[in-house]
Design a protein that fits this description.
Layout (H helix, E strand, L loop, with lengths): L3 H8 L4 E6 L6 H14 L4 E5 H5 L10 H20 L3 E5 L5 H11 L4 E7 L2 H7 L4 H6 L21 E4 L5 H12 L1
Parallel strand pairs: 1-3, 1-4, 2-3, 4-5
Helix pairs in contact: 2-8, 4-5
């Protein structure tokens, strides 16, 4: 089989996993999609994984219990490791609300290849954005255990990168990430 190093040389990049964590509506997917586009324009190959493209397919059998959320993160980390070994930059957008979930992912991927990116925005900003109406549904009791409403989010203690989306444009956020990973 081809080695990771051979694949990275062929692609002209160092593969890595960027793990975006933050509340729903914080801007994880928005920043990730813009970052993926910018990397592509710069001749680099990346893949965004987020709740929409993972939970509708490979993890469609999982709910939102603590155990299912942990399994969701475990599976995503394993998929990310496959991308990593293929020489691809994998950009993950998952709330991953608990520190132990992010530690599990980091353990699977390996600390040298795992970059934790805290996409930070105050909860009132996230709720005001609420593109899918999830906060409204959670407050109405239609979505139990919703992170940021009736389930706790544990912010990262020492993330590699912090992006304050309520203070930065998407372009500024992408540039900060690119400067950090280059």
């Amino acid at each position: 089989m081809l080695s990771r190093a051979e694949r990275e040389r062929a692609l002209g990049q160092r593969s890595r996993v960027l793990w975006f964590t933050g509340l729903s509506g914080s801007g994880k997917s928005t920043v990730a999609i813009a970052l993926e586009r910018k990397l592509f324009e710069n001749g680099r190959f990346a893949q965004v994984l987020d709740g929409d493209n993972i939970r509708s397919g490979i993890n469609s059998d999982l709910g939102f219990s603590e155990a299912d959320r942990m399994e969701n993160i475990r599976r995503v980390a394993e998929i990310s490791k496959l991308y990593l070994n293929s020489g691809i930059i994998c950009i993950n957008c998952f709330i991953s609300p608990k520190a132990n979930m992010r530690e599990l992912a980091k353990g699977i991927i390996g600390p040298e290849d795992f970059t934790e990116v805290f996409i930070d925005a105050p909860s009132d900003v996230c709720e005001a954005r609420d593109p899918k109406g999830l906060y409204r549904k959670a407050r109405a009791g239609l979505i139990p255990h919703f992170t940021g409403v009736d389930d706790e989010y544990e912010p990262p203690v020492n993330p590699d990168i912090v992006i304050n989306t309520h203070l930065l444009s998407v372009e500024e956020a992408v540039n900060i990430i690119l400067e950090t990973i280059s």
